[in-house]
Specification:
globular; 1 helix; seven-stranded mixed β-sheet; mainly beta
């Protein structure tokens, strides 16, 4: 079955850390751009970090720059999002997506919302709640 599966979400206190995983099955992430997106209640989905598996280029939204790190484990066919110094405003459902057409356009993958519906694969999402 071809799919992306996110995991690693949960409840964490402000200032804490979480690592999200996005595991691909049924296809390899080679030659794909992979992105992390989030959607808080009542807000639009936003791209927060995207990675090209071809050239390693990355993009981070200003809201997470310096706190979040995207990485990839080729052997596990998995992409991670390390989230440090978490804030209550990071509370959202986090999704990963993969798209071959964006492999050299990672910033566009993250920021061009009209394209979101056309990405090849989306995961089901994992909830992150930052609260004391």
């Amino acid at each position: 079955q071809v799919q992306l599966v996110e995991s690693g979400g949960g409840l964490v206190q402000p200032g804490g850390s979480l690592r999200l995983s996005c595991a691909a099955s049924g296809f390899t992430l080679d030659y794909y751009a992979i992105g992390w997106f989030r959607q808080a209640p009542g807000k639009e989905r936003e791209g927060i970090s995207c990675l090209s598996s071809s050239d390693g280029s990355t993009y981070y939204a200003d809201s997470v720059k310096g706190r979040f790190t995207i990485s990839r484990d080729n052997a596990k066919n998995t992409v991670y999002l390390q989230m440090n110094s978490l804030k209550p405003e990071d509370t959202a459902v986090y999704y990963c997506a993969a798209d071959r057409r964006a492999v050299f356009r990672v910033q566009a993958m993250c920021v061009e919302r009209p394209r979101y519906g056309r990405y090849d694969y989306w995961g089901q999402g994992t909830q992150v709640t930052v609260s004391s």
